[in-house]
Structure formats: C-alpha cells, structure tokens
Amino acid sequence: xxxxxxxxxxxxxxxxxxxxxxxxxxxxxxxxxxxxxxxxxxxxxxxxxxxxxxxxxxxxxxxxxxxxxxxxxxxxxxxxxxxxxxxxxxxxxxxxxxxxxxxxxxxxxxxxxxxxxxxxxxxxxxxxxxxxxxxxxxxxxxx
Length: 143
What we know:
The protein is of the alpha+beta class. About 40% of the residues lie in helices and about 15% in strands. The chain contains 4 helices and 3 strands; from the N terminus they run E-E-E-H-H-H-H. It has a 3-stranded antiparallel sheet, with helices on one face. Helix 3 (about 100-110) crosses helix 4. It is elongated.
C-alpha cells in the first residue's frame, strides 16, 4: 500500500484494538502518515473514536467494526480531502530554497495580536510561508 502513497498526505487506515483486558474486540480507524523522524509510515494512537489502538499492519480494506470510528469517518475524511491543496513535496522543497522564502516567512511572523502573541505561531508560520511561496512560484511559472 505505501509505495503509491504521497508522503505529504495523511490517510485513514484500519488498526487493531489495543490488546488489553476489557478492550472491545473491534477494528478501529486511525490517521496514517509518513513520519520523517522514523523514516516510516505510522498510524496514530488513539484511533479516531478516542480509544487506544495498536500500531498494526491491517489491510487497507479491513472491515472497520468500531461504531465510534464509523460515525466519525465522514468528518475526518472531509478534513483529509481538503488537504489535497497541499503542494507536492518537490514544490515545497523548492519554495523553501527560494531566496525570497526568508522574507516571506519573516513577514508572516512579524504580524501579531495586540497582546504581542503572533497571529501565526511556530511551525504554522513555516507552513503558511511555504504555501505562499509555492503559489508565487506557480503563478510565475504560469506566466
């Protein structure tokens, strides 16, 4: 499954229950994504229903039996579907290497609330600056 997945995106994937006494024997759904620090695909815990789940390699078409996960699936899938507007990784790398990136990032970071807190904190500023640079570069390439 992982060979054809985009490492920049997250997916929903079936995962097994946590093997503890009293845990219902259900198959859950968890977020599945690439973890750079581990150089591997991982699933989140807890599952989207809030119950703890194992890291597991269940087939992507395994039947999900957890009612809570099934109930929340449409909401999570809608959010993940909106992530399609994330630029491809090669474009994001090129955007961050663009000599103008530092100025865009500093401009984003300099805006703040009257309390002095940044409007776009921490890594969110990096993400926004990268998306802005990707859009600028795409517009320039389009002519």
